[in-house]
Amino acid sequence: MNKRSVPALLIAATVASNAFCATGNLVIFDDTDENGFDHPGAICTGQIIFGETAVVHSGSAAVGVSKNIDNNGMGWVAPTAYSASSDYDGISFWVNAGSNQTTLTSLAVFDALNDPHFLHLEDMYGAPLPVNTWIQFQIPFSSPFFAANSSTPPATVQTICLINHSGGGPSEFFYLDDVALTGADIFKNGFDN
Question: Which of 102, 134, 139, 172 has the most CB atoms around it within 10 Å of its CB?
Answer without folding.
Answer: 102
